Amino acid sequence: MSSAIPHAPRASGSLTLFCLPYAGGSAGTYREWQSRLPGWITLVPLHLPGRGVRHAMPPMHRWPALLDLLLEDVRPYLAQSFAIFGHSMGALVGIELAHAIRDRHGVSPVWFGASACEAPSRRERELRWLTCPEEEFLDEVRSLDGMPEELLRNREFMELVLPFLRADFHLCGSYGYRQREPLDCPLLVLSGKRDEVIVRNPESLSAWALETRGPFGRQDIDAGHFFINSHRETVIDRVVDGLASAFHSRAESGVPHSRSCA
Predict the structure, then answer these.
(1) pTM
(2) Which helix (H) or strand (E) segment is 158 a member of?
């Protein structure tokens, strides 16, 4: 049986922030966030298979199974307003989760944050990650500059993380974009000025605007791909600013809980 995320107490007028990690990452990416968030935001980091409280669960590399799992995790929180934030792969999982929540439960996020991630409509399929030679896979991981070389050369450590790393890379590589009704909430894109993947294809960020009918914004951070770790305070500040604007403007306008118009 899978381990579920803990159910946090909810207060009237509060907002739940679901957070999703990058490929190979865990909910621990967000462990220091709650102490930096205002009291009206309840942080709910989502746990992916093969790590953290789900370390005993086999990695998942198929989208339907992963979304079914996460939908069960978020379901207890959907009676009140919620937002979604994801970094890199987390943003891709996040946008699919937002649509799955809307399709199955009829509610939508009041805000969406996509960090260090190419827009869904600009992604290219790459299906070799589950079966390619290990050294080839490690070279790709190394190129993202997100894991110290001493860990990449630690056989015991890599035997633990390679299965879910490969599964995460396959999820990203097997992603198939399909057009559907955009979200209606504000959408903020954060990007690193020195993120080589994004620098080579800058329009892959602006294309996130296609994913919402609401306000779209983009903000750059002077960092590489993993600025969520190296510039944590900056990221939190920008997320909180976006949430405050979206959540409080909705409350002031008298708009009820985020029922989808689709």
Answers:
(1) 0.89
(2) helix 155-173
